Amino acid sequence: MNLVKDYEKQIEVIEIHPPISRRFNWNKFIENYQIFYEKIKENIPNAKILIENRNSFLLSGIKDFQKLSDIIDKSNLDLKLIIDFPQLLNYEKAKFDIDKLNSVLKEIKNFKHNIKAFHLWGQIGNKSHAGDINDYFNNNSRLVNTFYENLASIFIGKNEKYYFIPEINLGKKGKTKNECLSNIVQELKFSGFQFI
Question: Where are the beta strands (DSSP E) in 53-168?
């Protein structure tokens, strides 16, 4: 019995972070990614490789997502996108501006076909990955509702499946991190998401 090989068969998703933008451009990234991809596929052939946005990295904002999606489409690159929504909204300064929030989220539909997963987490003060979406939007119900409405319009469709990857490391006063996660899951379900 080869435990390493058995384990590799169970890996569904590998999440990678983009390079720091001042050191790389998209051509250099793709060149390096191809080497990485070949090595991964030798050992874990069924894994999906997803790239996540990071603040101030090569993949940070909505225009970066569109550019990478276009590259994926033109080059047939075996790579898909994972959106870290709080990071994206922070980068785009859309967290407390409802018009900007709507605008940024609506643009995601342009490259939805390359998205396979999304991250959600809360933020309490300057503590990221704490609390739930209500905390992220400072309990502004209008922003919270707008966010979930847009999420539903982006992702809910015929037989479409996505990975939901929560990143909640800390609870909040009176609630554990598991209760905060449960709040996010319940709000997603209320918005029309189904979990399988």
Answer: 80-84, 115-120, 123-124, 127-128, 163-166
